[in-house]
Amino acid sequence: MTTAGDIMHRGAQWIPAHETLDRAAQLMRQLNVGALPISDENERLCGILTDRDIVIGCVAVGHDPSEITAGDLAQGTPRWIDSGADVDEVLQEMQGHQIRRLPVIEDKRLVGMISEADLAAHLSDDQMSAWVESVYASR
User: Fold this and answer.
1) Which helix (H) or strand (E) holds 31?
2) 5 Cβ partners below 8 Å, 6+ apart?
3) In which element (H, E) is residue 129 found?
4) Is the pLDDT of residue 107 over 80?
5) In terms of pLDDT, which residue wins out, 15 or 123?
6) Are strands 102-106 and 81-82 parallel, antiparallel or unpaired?
7) Averaged over 124-138, what is the pLDDT?
8) Residue 42: other Cβ atoms inside 10 A
């Protein structure tokens, strides 16, 4: 059985909710990623911040990224998966919520992220085709 832990990208890092968006952008550049999970003061997932969120939700509306925090842009209920979950559960979670990145949690701590690239590297062509169709079909 292939698990979330088998296909995830290890080394994901939180951005604390109190950190500013300019700091988030710097961390994204340093890590070469387009998304960061947002943590509350107890290192619990409270959202995901993307580079697009920073541009659309801050810069494009004339806000200063040094004054807006990651927590200010956290919206909705964050989705995540346990590292021991089967890859079919990963696909269900991502397809069901039409998400492209999924934090992986183990013992209540962030241990990795699953992205489209991770799926492409580990799924069969049929699985990937079904995932792409379900996530992108209604967008």
Assistant:
1) helix 21-31
2) 83, 84, 104, 106, 111, 112
3) helix 125-136
4) yes
5) 15
6) parallel
7) 79
8) 7
Q: In what order do the strands lie in the sheet with 15-16?
A: 15-16, 35-39, 45-50
pLDDT in tens, 7-41: 999 988 999 999 999 999 999 999 999 999 999 98
Q: Which residue has the tokens 């489209």?
A: 116
Residue 74 CB contacts under 8 Å (≥ 6 apart), including other chains: 17, 38, 46, 47, 48, 49
Residue carrying the six token digits 């109190």? 18
* The model's pTM: 0.85
Contacts of 34 (CB under 8 A, 6+ apart): 28, 50, 51, 52
- Cα 22 to Cα 124: distance, rounded to the nearest angstrom: 38
Do 7 and 54 contact (CB within 8 A), yes or no? no
Biggest CA pair distance of the chain: 48
| pLDDT exceeds 60 at position 75 | yes
Q: In this structure, which amino acid lies at residue 37? A: P
Q: Contact at 8 Å (CB) between 120 and 131? A: no
